[in-house]
UniProtKB/TrEMBL annotation:
InterPro entries in the cross-refs: DUF202, IM_YidH-like
Keyword Membrane: yes
Protein's recorded name: YidH family protein
Transmembrane domains' residue ranges: 12-33, 45-69, 89-108
Amino acid sequence: MQQHMADERTFLAWIRTAIAIMGVGFLVTNLHFTVNTGLTGLGDFLANIIGIASVVLGVTTIIMVMFAYLKKTEAINNQSFRTPKYTTIFLGIFVIIIAVVFGVYFSIL
């Protein structure tokens, strides 16, 4: 029972993380277009990319975590649990890419 509850807490933490990632994307996009001071075409493009990529990453995170949660639940029941390396690596790489785009965006402002 303790393992299942820990698995559920981890699932909910990933959901909160996905919502935060999407929120940051919306925030950057909305601030970019409401401040509207000295905007360039590249700045507009990057703001849109950040918004879209953040939403895609958030939705992808939720989908991947739902499958991982179900797989872990079954693995806990069968006592054959394995650490999910590929999910973590994929999401980490995608977050790094978005962080680099953030850096480029803030450096051109």
